[in-house]
Amino acid sequence: MMKENMRFVYFLLLSFFFISCSSGRKVTTSEVSFADNIVVAHRGGWKKNKLPENSIASLKEAIRLKCTGSEFDVRMTIDDSLIINHDPHYNKLLIEESTYAELEKFTLSNGEKLPTLREYILAGIKNNTTTRLVCEIKPSAVKERGKIIAEKVYRLINGLHAQHMVGYISFDYDILKKLVEINPSLSTQYLEGNKSPEQVKADGITGVDYHFNFFKTHPEWIKSAKKNNITLNVWTVNSVEDMDWLIANEFDFITTNEPELLFERIKKNPTAAGWKLKWSEEFNYKGLPDSSIWNYAEGGNGYGNNELQYYTKADTNNAIVKNGKLFITALKQTRENNKYTSARLFTKDKAEFMYGRIEVSAKLPAGKGTWPAIWMLGKNRSEINWPDCGEIDIMEHVGYDRDSIHGTIHSKAYNHIKGTQKGKAIFIKNPYTESNIYAIEWTPEKIDFLVNNVVYNSFKNEHLSTAEWPFDQPFYLILNLAIGGNWGGKMGVDDAIFPATMEVDYVRIFEKK
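Given the sequence above, the corresponding structure tokens read:
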């Protein structure tokens, strides 16, 4: 009988052990090492698998993806229950005027009950050593109640011994200040976007987490935050273009509904290959191109290639910035002896570069007779003339040769006058309907030409003389849309294509870290 009892006790203990292991366990502070990435899943990893936002299922998916953070929203019911929900209403019931018993009658779309904060935190700290729980405390309709909610949230999380797993964000500045008052060592980030990093730091808040448009309007805040050791986060970023810009600017965190996409963009960004953003023109303004960066060519003298356009100066019909892009437009418009007008912008004496990765995202005009180009000339051109100064054609396209992109260098020894230029072409599918990234990677040893990160031409330094390699000096950038000319007009000009426009999304210059 004694042996049977001992076996029964042993069986119970063994069963308890397996049940405990399968249900998960809390992790200690020493076991936590947040994932070494910048991905914060917005309301969990819900979108790809069509899970409910702010559900425990979406939280677990963010942890499975090993996002460095998973954001969720906290509100308080009329009977002081802390629950997880983004909107002030749940199933048409106003949360602040409803009891939890009334709300929990309605399940989430996957059958899950509306989670309380306690349930959510307990789920988030089981078997999780990689993903911070990013707790957004929603503002209350009653200002002082927001501070009460903040303290209740803090006390509950503290009681669960989960403070080491949690960071706090809010649109309500007073909520964050209340948390700082309770515990100055907390990770806190402000969401509203109306305070500078300096002010946030002065109030003891450790980070800013603003919509990405605020950083485009105030790019100086990026440098200021880094200078002041203020954490840089941004919400809610779902497009490739915005992700790429934020990754290049080395934000600490990016909050997204598309964590899987963001992981892909991180791998493809130049920073993953050891490049660091040095300079950029993002065109985050309206009107004429920034005169502190851009000069204009002016006139209609053929520009050495028998081109047909007249380049205008500071004319928004031909060069204008809007919707975050530069538009260079060629028009069928008579100016002096020229049938067309267009624009040619260049950075001489304002922004010049030697070595690095120079990349430009652009959409090209279609049509016979167009000749858009993204290229560079040596700074000393006015002293020693072309081709001795050197020329790097990052991208050239002639409209009659559909879908072909050319990358070429010219020098005293290698140039198109002699027919010795060093160039190659690549075929791409969509130069007219989508933006593509045209780039060079330029070192003292070689210049690689890339389209969408594919190298299609490489010119190596032969270490002979400056006649072959004049590329150990600063160069300036040129963006232009020519019409006709010896190459572009080889098959004539189709007047039905006008207006013809090259759209430039950005220019970015990287250097090796």
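The first strand starts at residue 39 and ends at 41. Try to locate this feature in the token string yourself.
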